[in-house]
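Hi team,

Below is the intake form for Dipeptidase from Runella rosea. Please confirm the fields before the structure is written into the shared record.

FORM ID: S-0412
PROTEIN: Dipeptidase
ORGANISM: Runella rosea
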Amino acid sequence: MYTRALNEWKEFVRIPSVSSGSAHRSHLFDCADWLVKHLQKMGMQRVVQLTTGVAPPVVYAEELIDTAKPTLLIYGHYDVQPPDPLNEWETPPFAPTVRGDYLYGRGVSDDKGQLFLHLKAVESLMAEHRLPINIKCLFEGEEEIGSQHLSNVLGTHQALFKADCAVVSDMRMLDLHQPALTYGLRGNIHAELLVTRHGTDLHSGVYGGIASNPIHGLAHIIAKLHTSKGQIALPSFYDDVFKISAAERTYMRKNGPSNAQLRQEIQMADGIGEECYTAYERLTIRPSLTVTGISGGYEGEGSKGVIPRQARAKLNFRLVPHQDSNQVAQSLSRYVAQQCPSGLRVEVSVTAQSNAYQVNPDERVFQAASSACQSVFGRKPVLLRSGGSIPIVSTLAGQLRLPVVMMGFASPFDNLHAPNERFYIPNFFRGVETSKQFIRNLEFMHHAYH
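The structure came back. Fields below:
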């Protein structure tokens, strides 16, 4: 199984299914087709592509053995982040390469590898004629751009996705040998600021000093987004931030990543943020606002004497429980309008958003996952909050009313969203065994409570 699974995994990764922008759009459909063929080859009873407009299809598959048995919904995404900057990759991003115990390539970890290990688990149980529960699969191609059309698909086909619980593997372990279960995610807002001046580009020699400059205006607005103490400056922004218990903070400090580990991950001697919180707490239980891109004016080689008519910035908020993404987006629009210098205009567009999510670790399905991790890794998993956002999790919990197990197998040093993304191959196969044991545990827990 080892060699075949590794080769299939590589084949999956070779498809450049980048969802951001239009350059790789056709490859998203190629990737969906590849998944369909692979699921059919596995022998799944039903495999279909669910479409909505021009969006990449949602790939759905099912293996239903007995309506009296519990049903597990496996979620994953086949789209990946852009590979830029290409010159920092040691090997081409879509030519998956084994170096040592790692497979390198864009999407090997986020999320093709973690998606694929569940398929190998199901395939193994089916081949052994030991699949004890019903399986449904939901694989989408827009997660990296906010799952823009998935809610419509789920609403249209809600009966199709009926299940007892869901598993999502799109997160990390504490380290290579310490498994972890994620019980909290931050929410998310992707927004763009467009600052414009009436008219066209102007000569910077003829009009410099009297014409408003959108780049200057944008820089002014960005500088006003945070206070001198590093807090987000939007009025009343922190009013709804949830208050964590002292007991949970103690657990997080004892079991979560240390300040030193996180500094090592970002390759900096020190980080930023609110001083009264650890780095791990700043990443998970406190909100953040990051400028992820900025552009304006002449960006080619050499110089050009121009005052541009517009400038853009991309922002990313991460929100915590009890904060409402709609309210924050509205507050952002009002605030930047107030900060915009005279003679300029600012527009805000929100491209994706989701609210924070947290699950009760005492849920029975959570305990089934914990037992599976311990049986394979030989260690009880630690419980982690994540600073990341996975919109589908709150969608599955809210729209389909499913308990969601967040069980990741990536490591903190897998370079997710960065050049030289990688996955520790031994943990891929441990992940396969953990998924198999989790599926078995779900049957046992079902028997215990019925």
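SUMMARY LINE: The two ends are 36 Å apart (CA to CA).

Thanks, M.
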